[in-house]
Input
Amino acid sequence: MAKISTKDVARAFYESTKNKSGPEVERTITNAVEFLTKNKLLSKATEILEHLEKIRDKDLGVVSATVTSKRPLPKKTLDEIKKILKNRYEASDITLHAHEDLTLIGGVKIEANDEMIDLSLKNKVRQLQNHLLTT
Output
């Protein structure tokens, strides 16, 4: 028997519940739990749910991003980052998760859609150093 990936399971669950409500969704969820139990995949439920969330967000045009900075960023700055990301990814909405990293000297790092946008001071200095060494 072929191995079933958690991403494929999440995609199947998403497609089977899309545009359904009430008893139809309940029946689908019951069947999904039975499927996971039968195929010994209940231990992978967290991973499946993470894939499911990404699939749903992509379908709805929602981008989840993590912003890392040395100190908490002001709301105005976070709103501006959301606006820029919304345009960059042509998203209907941006979900921001802000984190602090005291090892950063300054600037920010943004992770979104499997992409890292490194605007940290350390990275800028490294880019300048590389530029000066190669010219």
About this structure: The mean pLDDT is 92.
